[in-house]
Amino acid sequence: MNVLVLLPLxxxxxxxxxxxxxxxxxxxxxxxxxxxxxxxxxxxxVGNPAPERLGETHHLRLLQLGSAGxxxxxxxxxxxxxxxxxxxxxxxxxxxxxxxxAMLLGxxxxxxxxxxxxxxxxxxxEGPVSTMSGARVLVxxxxxxxxxxxxxxxALGARVTGVQRHASAARGSFxxxxxxxxLPRLLPEADVVASFLPSTPETRGLADGEFFSALRTGxxxxxxxxGDLVVTDxxxxxxxxxHLAGAALDVTDPEPLPVDHPLWDAPGVLVTPHVSGGLHLxxxxxxxxxxxxENLARLAAGERLRNLVEP
Length: 311
Hints:
Blueprint: E1 2-5, H1 11-18, E2 25-28, H2 36-41, E3 44-46, E4 62-64, E5 84-86, H3 93-108, H4 111-119, E6 136-140, H5 144-155, E7 159-163, E8 174-178, H6 183-186, E9 192-195, H7 209-214, E10 219-223, H8 232-240, E11 244-249, E12 269-271, H9 282-301
Parallel strand pairs: 1-2, 1-3, 3-4, 4-5, 6-7, 6-9, 7-8, 9-10, 10-11, 11-12
Helix pairs in contact: 1-9, 3-5
């Protein structure tokens, strides 16, 4: 079995990965420099090759992504016939949840205004702030990332409700786990809404004018799932009217955000360029390696893969 790895692994991480398939032949290449013959020889690719280059593979059995998201690879004809697709869900919980919490707390404590004041050499009090303590936090997407975020929010004294595909008993830091059908009741009660939802036909455009109008005045919104959850014009209207106190956005629609887009300068907005789920925290890449090693072992044993993406 030939395994082509497109991730920037250390020597120790390579050794951990290779223990998952001790009989396999491993090769390593930067994603931007991968050669056609490497793709042609690969039975397994670990990483995120350009989707259009998958046509250069000849006998691909598994594409093990280094990302939790996989929508770029779902178009008809992108994945070669017979190849399995697996994501890296479970690798990004710590990184994304900490990033989003930092963004929200920064907004709630007026830190962007104080940063602007520092640059202008202005010593001024920017007034009242908000707190997570006692806040009602609604988490859209109660998987690995949402669960991590719930734990952090609860540690600050928030009361956390999760929304997922199917209702279930409360677990971890979630007081309740409900479905999207409950949103009309839940939104007016929320002080903070944080979304980690993927892009699906059911989630695209979910956060529209009706969604934002249902939120209480002065609430906060965060999105680190996919930008197309949000109808951006409706978000802008809610921010400009003062109905929303602010929005922490690691993803946007459109993305990348054009240089002249009004969202850059909208009141109460903090934007980061889809970096919360990058490889900026060492533990994230360690987690990806562990998932990939496990799936290499499962593939060799003919077992069902972890994080298998099925149509």
